[in-house]
Amino acid sequence: MTSDMEATTDDLQNTIRALWQQAQGGAGEELAPPDGFGQSVTSVKDTEIAEASGLDLEPVREYLENADGTLFVVGRDGESRSVQGLL
Which domain of life is it from (predicted)? Predict the structure, then answer.
C-alpha cells in the first residue's frame, strides 16, 4: 500500500514533469528537448509548481532541493527555485 506522502511525492513529480514538458513547447514525451533547443529551454518556477499542485510554496521548494541532481536540474535565485531540466 502506498502512503499519503509517497502518493503526494509521485503526484508532485508527475506535475513537475508535465509542466516542464509543456513549457518546452516541442519537447514531446522525451525527457530532454530535441536537438537545437539550446538556450530556448524554459524553466518552470516553484510558484507555478505550487499553484498547479495545490501545495504551499515551502514544501515545493523543499522537494526541489531534495530532487536536485537525482530527478531534476534545479536552479536557484535567492529563495526561489526553478526546474531547468529533467534527469
Answer: Bacteria
